[in-house]
Amino acid sequence: MKVAFLGLGNMGFPMAGHLAAGGHAVTVYNRTRSKAEAWTAKHEGRAAETPAEAAKGAEIVFACVGNDDDLRQVVLGDAGAFAGMASGTVFADHSTVSAGVARELAAIGADAGIAFLDAPISGGQNGAENGVLTVMVGGDDAVFERARPVIDCYARAVTLMGPVGAGQLTKMVNQMCCVGVIQGLAEGLAFAERAGLDARRVVEVISKGAAQSWQMDNRAGTMIEGSFDFGFAADWMRKDLGICLAEARQNGALLPLTALIDQQFARLRARGEGRLDNTALIRLLTKP
Amino acid sequence: MKVAFLGLGNMGFPMAGHLAAGGHAVTVYNRTRSKAEAWTAKHEGRAAETPAEAAKGAEIVFACVGNDDDLRQVVLGDAGAFAGMASGTVFADHSTVSAGVARELAAIGADAGIAFLDAPISGGQNGAENGVLTVMVGGDDAVFERARPVIDCYARAVTLMGPVGAGQLTKMVNQMCCVGVIQGLAEGLAFAERAGLDARRVVEVISKGAAQSWQMDNRAGTMIEGSFDFGFAADWMRKDLGICLAEARQNGALLPLTALIDQQFARLRARGEGRLDNTALIRLLTKP
Q: Cβ(A103)–Cβ(A77) under 8 Å?
């Protein structure tokens, strides 16, 4: 199938690669042109100068960019993807952005006969590289079924959660659950150190019971050794929490913990540590 | 072996039962006498009028009571366990109390040749009934090795964490990790409901990734259906968080999340909902 992929960051670069490896004819676009050239040097496919040019002739256009404004920029205007897309095609957005911008772009696309899916992902850079992402999708059932076999190139689980916006809302729930786990774990591990316990042994014991979590199984070790040069940056998680808090301002949800942790991430950023993995929350406790 | 068990609550009652079933000669004591009679009606063993009487002749005396003062009450004074114990015997405390009271009683016991183990447990009432508790122990290695085969009657994992107090400190880490997970999950699920998502489907999807936790796997369903008449009471968890916060006041650990959730539990209690399972934290968000 002829497809386009807009945004070749840590996630998009390998995802677009899986599409090419899956036999699709991929045209890529990236704001910084050198990344697109690095991609074409490594994969079958070509690079376009604008999102519109990349989108031309594609049955499905994928995007994976930074935030609401980045997304609007690659989608709208004369050089945007919608300008190059024909009626009857699909735009699938893998960015983590607001549910509002998903609905906004879906409405604009609908006027031109372009179907929209919001399809944020989880699984991190490893998941993207190994093609085992989890994809949470909002949109129409029939559109979902058309896109799904293509998305399968880089996903282990692809689930339709509801109408446009439902994918983003699901991703928000995911992030809230993650940060609660991480902050609790951070406080527990920092406390263990202060208390003179062997933190590794503590984790070994408590991970068998009700305190267990994916983060404990996979990140307690790196948190204890103070290794944060990998993974999902604190600044990115903070961007996501901003989306959660803005959505909650509209739907009335109460998020006392999420708001507190958002401020912890603000402190990390103010200390110049925003590029560290989001488990670096523990540094606010161990190196205050 | 001749043993005693002091405190026949939700946990102690089945634990003492496992000791009897394991072939030990058990004498029980409970503040409310009727519970002790219910126990002897069901198990081999006898009931004593005071902790001192129960402890007389026992090689190991176990306790599982409510808080620091309850523990002092069954241990100290003319009617307390230490008064009935001989030199060379062991007192093993399964209560969740402060590390300070463990050290205090260990020092008093040492003067009488009584060895002390702090040995708080996790695994809940189910774990106690099925004899699969996790036991986190503080004390001397040789004492630990003497008590361990007896504790094995109701435990799946028994680990020596360090000197007296280390068991309690480990349990504190466990509780901090639990409440972080629960509050994050509560905010996520309440948000999902507000956002019009199918919360069960959301959990199905996100529990495959970095948001996964034991609490999500085992409690999201009951939280969604609003079922809280079981499990570990909010008031008990709040008691435990009080211990964590008091210890942190001494060792200097920073616990912003733990402090916030302690206040959430205070609100639950003020609403008359302190007896509900600790996952009832979600009610502060869904029924504020």
A: no
